[in-house]
Amino acid sequence: MRVCAEKTIPWYEWAPCWPRWLRDHMERKHTRGRKRQTRQVCYFDMPCAFDIETSKVCTDAAGNPQSIMYIWQWQTGYDCTVFGRTWDDYKAFLQALSDAVQSIEDDTGRQWKVVSWVHNLGHEFQYLAGVLPFRSDDVFASKPRKVLKATCGPVEYRCSMRHSNQSLDSWSHQLGVPHAKKSGDLDYTVARYPWTPLTDTEMGYCVNDVRAVVECIMTEMERDGDDLYTIPLTRTGYVRRDARKAMYSWGINRVRRLLPTWKQYLDLKDAFRGGDTHANRYYVGVHLSNVHSVDMSSAYPGVQLECKFPMSPLREIPPSVRNLYIHMRHKHACLAVVYIEGLEQRDKSWGMPYIPLAKCRHAHDYVNDNGRLLSCKSLEITLTDIDMRIIAKEYKWRGMKVLRLYTARYDYLPKPFCDVIEGYYVKKTTLKGVEGQELYYMKSKNDLNSCYGMTAQDPLQLDTIFFAGEWTNSTDDPESVYNESREHAFLPYQWAVWTTAHTRARLKVAQWAAGDSCVYCDTDSVKYIGSINLDKYNTAIRKRAEEMGAFADDPKGKRHYMGVYEQERDYAEFMTWGAKKYATTNKTGGPITTTIAGVRKSRGGLELALWGGFDAFRPGFTFCAASGNLVIYNDHPTIKEITVDGRTLPITRNLAICDNTYTLGITCEYAGLLGLQPYEPVYENQVIGG
Fold first, then answer.
1. Rounded CA separation 413/310 (Å)
2. What is the pTM of this model?
3. How are beta strands 48-59 and 112-118 bridged, if at all?
4. What is the spatial distance between Cα 332 and Cα 309, in angstroms, rounded to a whole number?
5. What is the pLDDT of residues 112-150, one digit of tens each?
């Protein structure tokens, strides 16, 4: 790979170089994909990168901090890094670029764009939208403020963070590029302005932010044989490309027969739920010792290769409990909308209930165990046959009525699609630990993890519109949007619904084996005290994996199977307050690790240890240093300008990243179930760093 030149210059020195640079980087070779003459836009064949650094400079009357841009950086391919200090500088820089591109368009009769990658385009777009004229059809976003691509004039901005699905620090170090992102060289607490001098260290930090992006993009394009036409916008795009090819080889017409109708899609979406994550209420708040853990190897890919899925079109049949049971007895795939009365647990001491309250409709007089039902007078819910079997084992009820019922034939997923999954797993396993193959190992690992994410993408993608500075979602006619996107789909949505259902069923095997000793579960792992025997299950899974090719040998000759339970490192100490709220140590009295949504894993344990460790880990404890950041979006700042050092600065559309806190808490309803009193903060005068 060619290394970026160690050359950093002000924007006005580079502006006259645009005509020559652009002509030197006009495409000279045919790239794969559609023929060139059918493309509406041509790209110059060298990526660029853009980034800004910002600083909080004032606070408005409502207490919202306002920020400005004090330096921008633009990496022009491998050649050099260009910088400027004001938005006027940037607009002049773009005008020089636009004039040079216009000259080439006049000569060639084609439209040309420069692709500039931005790591976290949503952040930069908040500022760009305040100074550049973006139209609604120029912005492509998956959700409000989640911008994947935006075009203004001759520049097409793309989000490299959505492409890599990693921080720039992680991505650049993983790929081993020459100018990896630097950390800690820029103090964000210092207020800086466009005239503030920057040290060589600070400037080096800014420069590496764009050099690293270009080097990462070029490394991936060289590795995968991509160009700016074919490189995916998202991480899942790599897998999507391989899967699309596989499904077309299987027969796209066969796929289209399986695609659910609008009505079926709505019921499938109601039935879809993710991994099973829950804490046994009998162990919540208890400081445990010697907790063991088992983890399901490659859970989702293993299910996709080893289990059966609906492989015929969903067919609606007369709804009745009798028909549901008949088709389940004949091992057909079933999707049922059911109404249940008098629901209660068979074993009232069982601490890992299955039915999620969030998936229930019209639930009355229920007992809620932190999002799971223990009992309910009546409810409506949409279930697969897999869910139905689990519920029948854990619950009993007074009456049930089936409101809608669909059935399909069970079979294994198409072999071309399974071959894609198997290929990623084999590459990941055979490349693990092999010197010089780290780049390909990480790619295979990421691709394997993306297989499920691709299938689970919601086929109803409502347009996210940016118009007149505001974000909105188009919801005028969702059925028409779904039917239009259905024409381009190549994976049936029901496969995602059954993937997670099969995985939850496999997780229940370990939960039931642990019994009352089951402490906590999370998607593919079960934590427990005492002992557990999963030999019979693992033997059956290994046999199935051998039959379906769901295995691979590592460089040392050891065979690894998808879907088997493997013993993880034991926890010397363990304490939980619910799903995604637990603290552990691997050695008694040793360093604490926290797994809490909203708290940095690397810092949570350190902060907790400062205040007493596990004794302090209870509702009301506030994480300050370890909590995530709060982002305040100032779309219409009330302060239009400020004067600093005798100079006037405009305040445009901006955002402010502020320190945040996270208070460990449980609901009053859950506290009542646990027999706890309403809690107060652990330390009324808690001061971090005092």
1. 9
2. 0.91
3. parallel
4. 9
5. 999 999 999 999 999 999 999 999 999 999 899 999 999
